[in-house]
Amino acid sequence: MQQPGDYCALRLAGGPIAVLRGQDGQLRALSNVCRHRGTPLLDNGFGNISNRIVCPYHAWTYNDQGVLIGLPHSGDIEVNRQSHCLPKFSLDTWHGLVFVCLHESDVSLEQKLAGLDNYLTKFDLQRFTNGYHSEPQHWSSNWKLAAENGMESYHLFKVHPESLEPYTPTKSAFYVAGCASWRVTAGRFQGALSNLTGLISDSNALNHYLLISIPPGFIGVLTYQSLDWITVLPEPSNRCLVHQGGITDASGLNYRDSTSQAALAFLEEEGASWWS
Ligand code: FES
């Protein structure tokens, strides 16, 4: 979402929203519901709107900041355009990831995540300039259980003895730091992946992954080559919606023979037992 007009539309906690970059370069989170009769405006997924959003029902038109700028065939009817703009939500970014808050909060994302970056410096996230994402998945799980399951590696030896345990042994997992707003645990890759450690002299960072959880629903696995993440959102009937993506350096783009692949497998395997 680097170009003006780029957007991502999705449902967040049941509500349709669109995150889009305006012609002024700013990212905004807007309601994705027309103020006329409630029609969804943009299809879910990624796209580009150029510089305006046109409702598919009666073609009310909004600019890229959510301001109502056009009402075809409205004749003499007076419509207060100001009160029919698209509602905005709080939005902030962290290492290229976009966080949206649906309610007003006095605490900024920077305040919420204060201290977390101290544990990430070894991994030099500035190198991660390439992003990817996958199609959302529906898991048969209460969202809180799915999110909590991803917060630690203690259960790997018991729940994933043949898949994850050989690559990320439980005995090498440890708690790093945490507070009410975030938590970091860590572990060590081994097996086939340890062959990679000869490529870079600072093998300490390369050998390890950090498991970062940011309540309520963000879980990321940070390796020397990527930050792979999932977000878990509640759905009705004890189900949840899971988005998956990541950012990586150029060498991690093709997710083969790299620690990135292991990080991804880690998240996917974690989700497998909850899959619908
Ligand atoms: S519902 Fe959008 S213009 Fe009528």
Please describe what this structure looks like.
- The protein has 276 residues and is mainly β.
- The chain has 2 domains: 6-112, Rieske Iron-sulfur Protein (3-layer Sandwich), CATH 2.102.10; 116-272, Naphthalene 1,2-dioxygenase Alpha Subunit, Chain A, domain 1 (Alpha-Beta Complex), CATH 3.90.380.10.
- 12% of the residues lie in helices and 34% in strands.
- The chain is built from 5 helices and 17 strands.
- It has helices spanning 109-112, 143-149, 156-159, 203-207, 259-272, and strands at 6-12, 15-21, 27-31, 45-48, 52-54, 61-63, 68-70, 88-94, 97-101, 130-133, 137-139, 174-178, 183-188, 208-214, 218-222, 226-235, 239-248.
- The strands form 3 sheets. Strands 10, 11, 12, 13, 14, 15, 16 and 17 form an 8-stranded antiparallel beta sheet that branches. It has a 6-stranded antiparallel beta sheet with strand order 4-1-2-3-8-9, with no helix packed on it.
- Strand 12 (174-178) and strand 13 form a beta hairpin.
- The radius of gyration is 21 Å and the shape is elongated.
- The two termini are 30 Å apart.
- The model is unreliable at 192-201, 254-258 and 271-276 (pLDDT under 50).
- It binds FE2/S2 (inorganic) cluster (FES).
- FE2/S2 (inorganic) cluster binds next to loops.
State the gist of this model:
The chain is mostly beta strands. Helix content is 12%, strand content 34%.
Coarse structural class: mainly beta
- CATH H level of the largest domain: which superfamily? Naphthalene 1,2-dioxygenase Alpha Subunit, Chain A, domain 1
Oligomer classification: single chain
Tell me what the CATH architecture of the largest domain is.
Alpha-Beta Complex
Number of DSSP strand runs: 17
Say which molecules are bound, naming each kind only once: FE2/S2 (inorganic) cluster
* Rg (CA only): 21 Å
Q: What is the 3D form?
A: elongated
Ends distance? 30 Å
Q: How many structural units, i.e. domains?
A: 2
Q: SSE order, as H and E?
A: EEEEEEEEEHEEHHEEHEEEEH
